[in-house]
Amino acid sequence: MSESISKIINELHIYEKKLLKSLEENENYSPEDIANANSMDIKSVMSAAGSLASKDIIEVEKSVTESIILTDEGKKYAEIGLPERRVLNVLVDEKEIAMKDLAKSTGIENYEIKIVIGWLVRKNWAKIDKGIIKITDFGEEFKDKLGYDEKLLETLLNNENSNKNSPLLVSSLDEDFSSGLKQLNERKNLIEIEKKTTHSFKILDKGLQILSNGINIQEEATQLTKEQIKSGEWRNLKYRPYDINAEYPEIFPGKGHPLRRIIEEIREIFLNLGFSESNGCILESAFWNFDSLFQPQDHAAREMQDTFYVKNPIKCDLPEDYLVKSVAKTHETGGNTGSDGWNYDWSEKIAEQSVLRTHTTGISTRFLEENKPPLKMFSVGRVFRRETITYKHLPEFHQVEGIVAAEGISYQNLLGTLKEFYKKLGFEVRFRPAYFPYTYLSTECEVYLEEKESWIELGGSGMFRPEVLEPLGINVPVLAFGLGIERLAMIRYDISDIRMLYKSDIKWLRELPIENGIKLE
Fold this sequence. Notes:
Structural class: alpha+beta
EC number: 6.1.1.20
Pfam family, one: tRNA-synt_2d
Number of helices: 22
Protein name: phenylalanine--tRNA ligase
Strand content: 15-25%
Shape: flat
Keywords: Aminoacyl-tRNA synthetase, ATP-binding, Cytoplasm, Ligase, Magnesium, Metal-binding, Nucleotide-binding, Protein biosynthesis
CATH topology of the largest domain: BirA Bifunctional Protein, domain 2
Low-confidence stretches: 516-521
Subcellular location: Cytoplasm
Number of domains: 3
């Protein structure tokens, strides 16, 4: 006996051995025969057969037979005739019947009227003209012959009365009866198609080798009880070997959504760097979303085509009067910043407008107004812009924001903080000059992707302008930076369509590894 065949035999379950031995006696045994001969249930037989088939020891063949069964309703119509046939029998003599007299003249039930009319017209036995049912020439031809559906009903009734153990099989129907079956299937509750699945087994070459070497059927232990261990009975038991290379079902454990995992990763980076977290409101006033950032009230970004304005509530409360006046003065004349401002009449009414926040930077200005430096703060949240949905744009996405405010910090501290942040995300970063409305100096951060051998812009940053800080009462430098999280997720998970992050694509979500990307230090 070869070592591989011996190993296979040793690892066979006792049910698999019983099934093989039964097939050795008679390969024509059905699953039911094998179950009866070995005191097994059908489920155990089929489970053993499936296991043997997966090891190329036997082949399992499945065949499905479809039988046509008359329902009680079908039997009734087979005996008395289909309703359209009963109407045709009257039309042959009367030639026409008023629809209002149909039930009375033909004896059909009221619920059958619509069915009758439909089938009379469909079979071209009659036509409807101004409420009158008239027989057609084609209908005249059918007065003494049956349609295929009627012939099939008749055959089913005769078959049921003569031999109830041999139902009519779909596979035995000729073309005409198949046409009749199609018609009967289109009607409710006349026939049922009963499907019966049968299995047969065939021993393959590997199975024949196993049988030629012989199988010893003996009860085997797969687990021990404490009584067997205490009594020492375990020493006399036969143990079944296990195949550690056997196939196993693929398991998909529960895990966080990839976008949520990246958000949590970013939060952990900021918290480890000593930042505190702040959360703002999705519904924000134009004052905090735009005005506090020294964005003029006629700026293009504030137009309806770029921003979602809310009707209810139509306006938001503004902060304390001194802050509103300070922001207004900075917009109009530059205030005490040394700037000329925007030289226009600032409107409190415009500042009260309700908007879905277009960025999380308003959280930063609120935090600066409410807290005294030195401070380090970050925020993560959803923002909203009137974008057309494409493979790289969404009207709703996530943004992360960070600020540091302290005496003596500079642009160099900004670059150092960014370098450390992106390093913890697993990226090499470089900087290039940029323009943002509320920071100066400003820079864009680009990260290097080795697999694409290219630099990708991932975030913006800069030092808050005096026009932003002075109205808030901040007299120390403040560095600020942020990035769009969806863009980072597209890079991390190598996807080219941002919409994938919001689709319920269970296959993609299952195949993502539990741990993905760079581990935090």
